[in-house]
Amino acid sequence: MIAMAPPRxxxxxxxxxxxxxxxxxxxxxxxxxxxxxxxxxxxxQAEAIEAGPGLRPIAGIQADATSAYILFIPVPGGVTLDRVxxxxxxxxxxxxxxxxxxxxxxxxTPEGGVWALRKLAGWRTARASGxxxxxxxxPPDPEADLGPEAPPAGx
Length: 155
Description:
Blueprint: H1 17-34, E1 35-43, E2 55-70, E3 73-75, H2 81-95, E4 100-108, E5 121-135
Antiparallel strand pairs: 1-2, 2-3, 2-5, 4-5
């Protein structure tokens, strides 16, 4: 007598299509929601934007960083003002040929107090924005001849 192996299930070794779709959707959601850092720029027309005396605007820049928290553990972490201002905003401005950032604005979700509960299952964000400018010749100072001292008193 010849022993026959039991028949194999047609789905054995294959993944159900629903599971593959759910796994793909979960991976996409996790990579999207867990952490992200972006820098957005827009070129500005110098004649249309006033940045200040002696400043020629180059671009508007906005830097954002978001990090998810699960049981007080940052995933992937790295949400600090230093990162969004210096490492993202200023670095992008310098790469575009700017000398300085004008009209700097920044914000970050607080860490302490009641905001700490957000780290249980939530997120933290940081944002910085400003206008990248080149320094041009400053306008002449009409009082430059007066010097730092007050003019002498008359007789």
